[in-house]
Amino acid sequence: MSGNTYAEAGVDTAAGDLAVELMKSAVARTHGSEVLGGVGGFAGLFDVSFLKAYTRPLLATSTDGVGTKVAIAQAIDKHDTIGQDLVGMVVDDIVVVGAKPLFMTDYIACGKVVPERIADIVAGIARACSDTGTALVGGETAEHPGLLGVDDYDVAGAAVGAVEADAVLGADRVQDGDVVLAIGSSGLHSNGYSLVRHILASRGIGFRDHSAELGGTVGEVLLEPTRLYTSPLLRVLADPRLGAGVHSLSHVTGGGIAANLARVLPRGSRAELERSTWSPAPVFRVLLDMQGSPLESAEATWNLGIGFFAVVAPAVADDVVAKLAIDGMPAWEVGRVALGGDAPQGEGWEQGAKGVDGGAVRLTGRYAD
Predict the structure, then answer these.
(1) Which end of the chain has less Cβ packing within 10 Å, N or C?
(2) Are 86 and 125 in contact (CB under 8 A)?
(3) What is the pLDDT of residues 12-65, one digit of tens each?
(4) What angle do CA 121, 124, 125 make, to 5 degrees?
(5) What structural domains does the chain harbor?
(6) Mean pLDDT of the chain
(7) Residues 360, 205: contact at Cβ < 8 Å?
(8) Are 121 and 71 in contact (CB under 8 A)?
(9) Rounded CA gap, 257 and 250, in Å?
């Protein structure tokens, strides 16, 4: 007898069960007393009784993936960091509005469930959830034989946070003369990998090749996990004086540097960012040298060393930088915001990304060596 079983169709439910067993302990470590039930239920439960103490609680939510960075993880068979990238892309969007993350769920689609691989991915998600104070309350691993190759997978996730209505950060809080602080990235993070792969493929460079310029194996350098900003930023916001001086935050992801900052500035405002205040990491310079392009050409694609922006009152700028430094977050003044006057026009000005009618931002000067 053959031909009509689920296993013969390419779906291994036993492997899925083993994957759940392997990831259980990592997921459980993200659970506090607010999480009810264990791993493997139909729905995750999270006790939000504490929201009764809020005057007007708002829920914040975000959904994202890590794009084609997964192709590099698959190529070198290293899967224990891609989960941190996912949490960075999802949870660090929630802190932008000043919200504290509460819980997250994940989704993994694969061609074949390899329990150890799935466990590695989820363990990375769980570690990053712990680092950001986020409970991992559920997820799904879906096997898609015939649609995805045996070693192919994709990951996505969603998270929910909470914030007081009168504490929401955004463009409406920004004032004339505010300081724009840049907060350093750990590398490429999770955007622009289609360009990375194109550059390498056009030069016949493999992900397992060693690069003296990059200082290691190409794939391992490119898999440097996304820096997590949530906990350090929440500690800044929890300080009454510093928190009152933080007006808006921006996560530098798809769309690049200027467009993402423009999203959190008010309409009619402008900010010029001075390139000479930082030096992009070697990974950016090496890749663009391969292509024969200047650093400026990638400003709308890669973060070039800036993972986050904080727009703050001048009186607290130095103290915010010092507070972030305690958590190992390099930050520096990169520009100032000006309100009033005519909206700037001309080459180099970005007016916002993803349909947001924000301020105008451009980069000036030359990058530091």
Answers:
(1) N
(2) yes
(3) 556 656 656 666 677 778 778 888 876 667 888 889 999 999 999 999 999 999
(4) 90
(5) 13-37+44-167 (3.30.1330.10), 171-364 (3.90.650.10)
(6) 91
(7) no
(8) no
(9) 10
Lowest mean pLDDT among 41-45, 57-61, 121-125, 271-275: 41-45
- Residue pair 23/119 in contact by the 8 Å Cβ criterion: yes
C-alpha dihedral (158, 162, 168, 169), degrees to nearest 10: -50
Classify the phi-psi angles of 231: left when phi > 0, otherwise alpha if psi is within -120 to 50, otherwise beta. Answer: alpha
Bridge-based pairing of strands 331-338 and 270-274 is: antiparallel
Tokens 């070697």 map to which residue?
282
Cα(109)–Cα(304) distance, rounded to whole angstroms? 30
Q: Which residue has the tokens 């879906």?
A: 142
Rounded-to-integer distance, Cα 14 and Cα 7, Å: 9
Contact 39/51 with Cβ under 8 angstroms? no
* Region 311-335 average pLDDT: 98
Q: Kindly state the greatest CA–CA separation across the chain.
A: 79
- Please state, in angstroms and rounded to a whole number, the distance separating the CA atoms of residues 222 and 227: 13
SS3 329: coil
CA neighbor of 89 nearest in space, from 221, 256, 253: 253
Q: Which residue has the tokens 């931002």?
A: 361
Find the distance separating the first CA and the last CA of the chain, reported in whole Å: 69
In this structure, what token pair is assigned to residue 195? 């360009």
Distance CA 249, CA 332 (A): 14
List, in sequence order, every beta strand (DSSP E) within the chain. 35-36, 45-46, 57-65, 100-110, 135-143, 153-164, 179-184, 210-211, 216-217, 246-251, 270-274, 306-312, 331-338, 360-364
